[in-house]
């Protein structure tokens, strides 16, 4: 076996050693980015000072928060070389939602005809989409594509996409495609307009957000564990949602124009939905399953090329549910050694490939088998 397997274990150990500092570091970075960029760019033009500058800072702060919320999960998946604990349905709904959201924001910000149609329907008021909304949507789509790729290449246990999620995503895609086709091939000024097509995309995004968290909540419940689903991403996401809703309310109050909410309902609705489910995840992680968090039980590092799985557990046993998620119905032989000796030994290099065998140390279980 190549020595890169041992290096992956060291990467995972290093990332876990930095975990206590990752939360404060992320929140500090979010605040710094929000203030620096918020003051560096032009203030929101249609809002009087000093509220225009405050709105700009809030907007870039929640942009930084929501953007960073994707990376703890990506890093966790990489360190563990596994997506066990992450719902595949959640990722599919996420992909659908952010494709729609990116098209919606880009069209409202850069589409001159869309802006004109919006102003005609809202007494000359401009839409509430700002440049940070566009950057967030594009970054979110990119980060989601990275996570989808991880779901395709990393082991995911016995989890598969549900029939329901496939039907919902397919039906939503076909509906949006047909609506767009009709709106671009007819001169109708009624229902089938480009503006209404974009609103349809926004509602698909809102719908995807409403349902995407449910499979993850259910998966955590079934596993009685939140291991594999990053709590840091949840905390940062909640911060971004609170700031997003606060910005909309402040902008509406300052300009006495509440169409910033009624004209962009998806933005306000997304914030409310995200906050609700973020609270649910916090309850699962800190209250319902406090003994199975990442600090207590660790994660799973899988090396499919060599049939090696490293499971970090405080107390591993053959009946541990996390092991069943990795290799169902396998019988393991546990061999004791010391953690430091394990790192320096050739246990990974010399591990047999013929059948399931485990090298068990206080914090690491190495499962080797076909």
Automatic annotation (TrEMBL):
Keywords tagged on the record:
Membrane, Repeat, Transmembrane, Transmembrane helix, Transport
A single GO CC term for this protein reads: vacuolar membrane
Record localization: Endomembrane system
**Membrane topology reported for the UniProt record:** Multi-pass membrane protein
> Which Pfam family, any one of them, does this sequence belong to?
PQ-loop
Q: Where are the transmembrane segments?
A: 21-41, 53-71, 92-114, 134-154, 161-182, 188-206, 227-248, 268-289
InterPro entries assigned to the protein according to its UniProt record, in alphabetical order:
LC_transporter (IPR005282), PQ-loop_rpt (IPR006603)
Which terms in the Gene Ontology molecular function aspect does this entry carry?
L-cystine transmembrane transporter activity
UniProt protein name: Lysosomal Cystine Transporter (LCT) Family
